[in-house]
Each structure stands twice: as C-alpha cells, then as structure tokens.
C-alpha cells in the first residue's frame, strides 16, 4: 500500500529508475559537472573556492566535488536530495542559478550511479546518499534517501534514516 497523508490521501511515489531517466537530460558529462559547480555558486552557499578531484575507490573511478561554502544541515540536505524542491532566493542582487530543485540529482546521476554528500554546518555534520546501487541491492520500490546527522565528537546520532 502506498504511503498516505494523515487524511488517507496517497502520496506520490518515485520509482528508483527515475534517477537514471532524469540524468539523461545531460547529453554529455560536462553539463552535469557544470550543474554541480552551479550549486556552489548559489548565493546562500557563500563558497569562495571549489575543487574537483578524481581518484580510485576499490578500483572504481570517483569524482569529488568540494567547496568551502556555508554547509547544510539535515533539513537542507533532505531538500537537496528531494525532487522538485527549491527555496533558493536572490541575496544582495546575486541570483541563484537553479530554481527547480533538480540539478544535483540530474548532474550527479549522469556522472555515476551513486552520490554521497558530506557537509558541516556549525557543530553539526551531515551525510546523505543518493544511490542507484543501494536502491537496486535493497529492492526498493521507491527512492529512499539515507541521511545521517551527528556532532563532531560522534557522541550524538541526531537522525538515522529518511525516506523520500
């Protein structure tokens, strides 16, 4: 049975195959890379620098995108990993690049099957995962987005799992 609101109305579901389908909006990898760079440029991010690195992890190519921006907390991580949600606003005349809440998902899934996002904001750290491999291996019928939030000392686990 589909998830429902408190009034019994079925919530929309998102099939895991959509992650790949959505990524095909990028006809070549560089438009996907540009999409991820654009996120660091948005006014609320406040990034001054951006790095891209390529390495191998267990024999697989791994691209790392990193900025020195403001970081995101659990709520922003959830919104970033959700589909079609954006609360970006113009700040001091600096207009955000994306407004539709799709760029990270389409860009990251064009470059690979899995994306892990690490962020630090204040004294809180957050890790979120958007993974076609995970969804396939678990037999998920809907997109599930694990998010873990913790404090640097590692003593407090704030949130463990969130389902989209």
TrEMBL record:
GO terms for cellular component: PML body. It comes from the Eukaryota. The lineage of its organism: Eukaryota, Metazoa, Chordata, Craniata, Vertebrata. This is MORC family CW-type zinc finger 3a. Gene3D superfamilies: Histidine kinase-like ATPase, C-terminal domain. GO terms for molecular function: ATP hydrolysis activity. Transmembrane segments: none annotated. Pfam families: HATPase_c_3. InterPro entries: HATPase_C_sf (IPR036890), MORC_ATPase (IPR045261).
């Amino acid at each position: 049975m589909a998830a429902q609101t408190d009034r019994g109305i079925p919530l929309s579901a998102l099939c895991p195959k959509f992650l790949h389908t959505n990524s095909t909006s990028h006809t070549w990898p560089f438009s996907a890379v540009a999409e991820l760079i654009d996120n660091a440029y948005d006014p609320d991010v406040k990034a001054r620098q951006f790095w891209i690195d390529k390495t191998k992890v267990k024999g697989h190519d791994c691209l790392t995108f990193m900025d020195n921006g403001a970081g995101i907390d659990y709520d922003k991580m959830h919104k970033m990993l959700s589909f079609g949600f954006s609360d970006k606003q113009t700040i001091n005349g600096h207009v955000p690049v994306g407004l539709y809440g799709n760029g990270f998902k389409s860009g990251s899934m064009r470059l690979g099957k899995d994306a892990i996002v690490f962020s630090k904001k204040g004294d809180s750290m957050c890790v979120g995962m958007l993974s076609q491999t995970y969804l396939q291996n678990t037999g998920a019928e809907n997109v599930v987005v694990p998010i873990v939030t913790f404090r640097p000392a590692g003593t407090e686990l704030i949130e463990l799992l969130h389902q989209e």
